[in-house]
Input
Amino acid sequence: MTHRTLSVEDRIDIAELVSLHGHLFDAGELDRLDELFTADVVYDLTDFGQRPLRGVAAVRDAALASGASNPVGHHVTNIVVTQDGDGLVRVRSKGIGVRADGTTGSVTYEDRVVRGDQGWRISHRTIVARRAPLGGT
Output
């Protein structure tokens, strides 16, 4: 099966999709998460000692349950989009979270994105905490 190569427009749309994450969460616009994720998204938080969340409602509910412990700022940068030989589109990006007390944390987002009727959406997100410089080596 032949897969369509990503166009420049696809890459821009995907980068904007990944960037939308911080805007929606920081503004508390959790009713718009369907603009970011597929309905059956897997949101993998195992690196934080939590089980993966499944579905947009579970992601929204977890954010609401975290309340004031959520970062006040999610900043996404260093977005790299790749396409596997089988057509799977992967995105790696860096996230910087800023808490209300000014402390920060760094993560890597490892996403799989798919194009549907409504455009690009994240179907799987794994969040990996950055805890040591140089990847811990």
Summary: The helical segments are 8-26, 56-66. The chain has two helices and six strands. Strands lie at 37-44, 53-54, 73-83, 89-98, 104-116, 119-130.
